[in-house]
Design a protein that fits this description.
The protein has four helices and six strands. By secondary structure, it is of the alpha+beta class. The chain has a single domain, classed as Alpha-Beta Complex (Nucleoside Triphosphate Pyrophosphohydrolase). A hairpin with a 2-residue loop joins strand 1 and strand 2.
């Protein structure tokens, strides 16, 4: 019996019910670092990208996207490279975008989004950490802890406010689930 369902198992030569094409609006698999200031969780490390930095190489951004997002705050992040694990991507982001060799990270938390009407799919791996100071790196014009209680949604680039909202939902769920038994 053949099903009419189209499962998201992507493989070019796979028999049905596998998919042979990507969604019309694209499909991104990305890693994000949410590093809060030690002792002040609402302050999260974000930056304004340096348009002269090699973002095509370190963050999978073409020049048009670099121009479009350079005025907003952005989380350290990147699409995964082919064959790269989310953990390897997190380590690469730490080194290439933040210049950090050592940083403790927890995770990943995993979220998925579908953005309509484009039918664009995102699979997001979020790694959480804390540190006392903001590093510096030439990939950013400004890299600092941004107070999320004072920032406006329109000041955040690339839809990263959605990523931060997912972390807040998870924190809320965990704080309200102390009597949940797994």
């Amino acid at each position: 019996m053949a099903t009419g369902r189209r499962f998201t198992h992507f493989k070019r030569d796979a028999p049905l019910p596998r998919m042979r094409e990507i969604p019309e609006g694209g499909f991104c698999i990305s890693t994000f670092l949410i590093i809060s200031k030690t002792g002040s969780p609402p302050q999260v490390l974000m930056g304004r990208i340096n348009k002269k930095a090699p973002w095509d190489h370190i963050g999978a951004l073409d020049q048009e996207r670099v121009e479009r997002h350079s005025a907003g705050w952005m989380l350290p992040s990147s699409a995964l490279m082919l064959g790269e694990s989310p953990q390897q991507a997190a380590e690469r982001i730490l080194q290439e975008q933040l210049g950090l060799g050592e940083q403790t990270l927890e995770g990943p938390l995993v979220f998925s989004e579908v953005y309509e009407p484009l039918n664009h799919w995102d699979l997001e791996f979020l790694f959480l950490g804390q540190r006392a100071d903001a590093p510096s790196n030439d990939a950013w014009r400004v890299l600092e802890f941004v107070d999320l209680t004072k920032i406006r949604k329109e000041d955040v680039a690339r839809g990263h406010e959605d990523i931060l909202a997912n972390v807040r939902k998870m924190d809320k769920w965990l704080s309200n689930s102390s009597n949940v038994r797994f």
